[in-house]
Amino acid sequence: MKDNYCVIMGGGIGSRFWPFSRESYPKQFLDFFGSGRSLLQMTFDRFAKIIPTENIYVVTNEAYASLIKEQLPELSEKQILLEPARRNTAPCVAYAAYHIRACNPDANIVVAPSDHLILKEELFLRDVRKALDFVRENRALVTLGITPSRPETGYGYIQSSDTVVDDFAKVKTFTEKPDLELAKVFMESGEFFWNSGIFVWNVNTILEAFSKYLPDISSRFDLGKDKFNTPEERAFIRENFPYCLNISIDYGIMEKANNVYMLCVDFGWADLGTWGSLFELAPKDANDNAVLKNNEAMLYESSGNVVALSDPKRLVVIQGLNDCIVAEAGNVLLICKKEDEARIKQFVADARIKYGNEFN
Amino acid sequence: MKDNYCVIMGGGIGSRFWPFSRESYPKQFLDFFGSGRSLLQMTFDRFAKIIPTENIYVVTNEAYASLIKEQLPELSEKQILLEPARRNTAPCVAYAAYHIRACNPDANIVVAPSDHLILKEELFLRDVRKALDFVRENRALVTLGITPSRPETGYGYIQSSDTVVDDFAKVKTFTEKPDLELAKVFMESGEFFWNSGIFVWNVNTILEAFSKYLPDISSRFDLGKDKFNTPEERAFIRENFPYCLNISIDYGIMEKANNVYMLCVDFGWADLGTWGSLFELAPKDANDNAVLKNNEAMLYESSGNVVALSDPKRLVVIQGLNDCIVAEAGNVLLICKKEDEARIKQFVADARIKYGNEFN
Fold first, then answer.
1. Can you tell me the distance from the alpha carbon of B3 to that of B100, in angstroms, rounded to the nearest whole number?
2. Which residue among A300, A319, A347 places its CB closest to the CB of B298?
3. A171: Cβ–Cβ under 8 A, 6 or more apart, which residues?
4. Of A245, B11, B43, B272, which sits most exposed with the smallest number of CB within 10 A?
């Protein structure tokens, strides 16, 4: 128990959720469901049930330090690891591993994004515990594979093999987001699972993997081996982190290592990566409209819409609108077809070109 | 010139323009085009060019007295005639006529709504002058008939006869809003003109008409003959106005009188009664979208929309939306098909039932 650690990755920008998610206030800090807790806070709350609070870390960009402190006052200064630059997940995972090893060389670590929704918490906690126990005994890099409920094209997939240790199946391949045809094949095969991006490993196992598959990164961090968990850590990270390769943990290690195992799970997981995924999960009215944030809403001859106004005291009246996103936050109102939400990134870019950062 | 008076009717609620137009702040007080002047102010500015400012009156509901003073500081207290109750246009016209006769028994009066748009001001002023001259010489009730530019079903029509005095044609009939088929026939006939609701008459001519066609109303006002334009007027009106018949000047007098004449005009008139009429008039982008209020807007694959956000500093991004009204004001956001805007009145009523007056 005392050897169990958690690393929450909270440095993303989440521009696909604009205008709600802003570069200055990304989605993990938002309370999408009007529940009173942000995605980050819900993630913390979950892990705090099985991991000692003092063993929970958040890795984020320096820009979000104050937001983290504000939303998670439970965390001490030293539990917030600040990245001086955006370098994707591999350097983030390495930084956390080096720091945690300096605190506890026997640490078992669960690494999780901060913007996921988990509906069946009990199952989730059981599976995470199980994985933490597994990596204590086995030099395995564990990923949680979600049993697919639909041929989703928005997720990466993991293919399991027949080699199974306890309930952990050796992973055959990681695949990028498939097209719909392939996604259907994946689903029917029964061999493919959604890549949750939730990983579990012993600190020594992951650091060995880094020196083997991402030596550029590990050698860079090795320069400051003795500085981690000391007053010198910040200065060392500030100076060296920016030199790290910009690469994901999936691509840099999980797809290459031969000791990757997957635990098949089914705890009502969703990556809140898009309005569409949010819509899938949100409670809906009789006409399949999802009104978030407890907004007062009156809908007529409308269906399939997802509606979110940052001001819950505002009334929204919608008539004759179908399958749209109606999102209003701060100084921006967005109305967009759900099926075209991939273009939101472009809208943000266009707005930046036209207006500077006023609306970003 | 000194005998020419103007009465601006400014007591309407304009609920079809909700959420912009609120019962507490109706459309005539709004600056729809971001021009810096409200519809009421634009109406006043127009008449002030040909009518002495001290001869311009506004008749409105007591509830709007302070709004009028705020928007038209040029008016003295006694130029604002306050209705203690909503009684349609006939009692409003009678009240103004009784008051003005007490000021000037030779007054010639132009009566106009406060929520109209007039694009060709020079022509408008020429025609009003012409009508004022005509009613000085003739005991005629004059209405301005607009040469129709399309088979509009939202307006009432006036049928002219062949009896013409100067350029003023004796009116044969007034008709209610026709259906599209009939409206087409009207337009092709060349005999039918839009009823602008702008009337011109000598004060004695209209008061004779009242005693002849609406004796209930005139006898009620006759009770206070000597009180008009005296300190006793307010108390008299407060006590007696509510007893007046609730009836329009068109139905109560114009459709019945046999001395009604029409001047055919074509000064780019529009009754800003609906979002649709506003859309018709507003400048549009290449895809036929009308963005009012100088809002910052980015539209993609969208056409035929009318967009109005009360906060001009707000950015609106719209994609894949066609022929809709997107209107946001105060605590309400409305998205509605243009063709279904007639239902806005229902939305307002529903909101009142559901939330009380919070959003009205």
1. 10
2. A347
3. A143, A158, A159, A160, A161, A254, A260, A261, A262
4. A245
Q: With CA atoms as reference, report the closest residue to A25 among A78, A65, A64.
A: A64
Q: Which of A19, A314, A324 sits opposite B333 (nearest CB)?
A: A314
Which residues are CB-contacts of B6 (< 8 A; sequence separation ≥ 6)?
B47, B51, B55, B56, B57, B109, B110, B111, B112
Q: Residue A273 contacts by C-beta under 8 Å, 6 or more apart in sequence?
A: A14, A16, A115, A154
Helix axes A215-222, A203-213, angle to 10 degrees: 120
The Cα–Cα gap between B96 and B81 comes to: 7
Contact A320/B337 with Cβ under 8 angstroms?
yes
The tokens for B280 are: 């018709």
Q: Would residue A185 be called left, alpha or beta, if left means φ above 0 and alpha means ψ between -120 and 50 degrees? A: alpha
Is residue B30 pLDDT above 90, yes or no? no
Bridge partners, B120 (sequence order): none
The model's confidence at residue A1, banded by pLDDT at 50, 70 and 90, is: confident
* Largest separation between any pair of C-alpha atoms in chain A: 65
Would the CB atoms of A350 and B298 count as touching at under 8 Å? yes
Backbone angles phi, psi at B56, to 5 degrees: -100, 125
What token pair was written down for B258?
């046999």
Mind listing the pLDDT tens digit for each residue in B124-176? Answer: 999 999 999 999 999 999 999 999 988 888 889 999 999 999 999 999 999 98
CA distance A52 to chain B (A): 44
Q: What is the pLDDT of residues B280-320, one digit of tens each?
A: 878 899 999 999 877 789 999 999 999 988 887 889 999 99
What is the spatial distance between Cα B199 and Cα B167, in angstroms, rounded to a whole number? 16
Non-local (6+) Cβ contacts of A190 within 8 A are: none
pLDDT for residue A140? 98
Q: When comparing pLDDT for B214 and B343, which is higher?
A: B214
Q: Is A304 left (phi over 0), alpha (psi -120 to 50) or beta?
A: left
Of the candidates B102, B80, B110, which has an alpha carbon nearest to the alpha carbon of residue B11?
A: B80
pLDDT in tens, A149-161: 888 888 899 999 9
What's the rounded Cα separation, in Å, for the pair A203 and A40?
23
Whether A331 and B314 lie within 8 Å, measured CB to CB: yes
Are B330 and B21 contacting, i.e. CB atoms less than 8 angstroms apart? no
Per the CB < 8 A criterion, the answer to whether A16 and A8 are in contact is no
Confidence of residue A358 (pLDDT cuts 50, 70, 90): confident
Predicted local distance difference test score (pLDDT) of residue B170: 97
Helix (H) or strand (E) holding B143: strand B141-146
Which of A 296-335 lie inside 8 A of B, CB atoms? 296, 298, 300, 309, 311, 313-321, 324, 326, 328, 331-335
Amino acid at A342: A
Average pLDDT, chain A: 93
Structure tokens at B78: 């006694």
pLDDT higher than 90, residue B122: yes
Q: What are residue B307's phi and psi, to 5 degrees?
A: -120, 125
Overall average pLDDT of the B88-96 stretch = 97
- Complex ipTM > 0.85: no
**Tokens at A134, concatenated:** 């597994």
Q: What is the pLDDT of residues B328-346, one digit of tens each?
A: 988 899 999 998 988 898 9
B337 and chain A in contact, CB less than 8 A: yes
Instruction: Kindly report the length of chain B.
Output: 360
**Mean of the pLDDT values across residues B13-32?**
84
